[in-house]
Amino acid sequence: MRKLIIASSIVMAFASLSAQAAEQAVVDKYNKTCIACHASGAAGAPVTGNAEQWASRMEKGMDVLVESADKGLNAMPPKGMCYDLSLIHISEPTRPY
Question: Rounded to an integer, what distance in angstroms lies between the CA atom of residue 77 and that of residue 40?
């Protein structure tokens, strides 16, 4: 029983570290490119953390929002010119809004 508890604890620790690493990867991608426009609202970009600016976009649904970011919309080029972004990298920062 003791070995099972230790093994479970190790698995949970690795799972937690993996989740933290994945979350940090999203933050790193955001800080690499997205922040250039989404921190200041440059070129009409909705500002990160400003729910009012994101509301009309979110009303269209997450799928439409992610597709717009993936393919580009208005002044935003596809993937914000960070072409190694996955759909997860695109969608995760917008989830709180």
Answer: 17
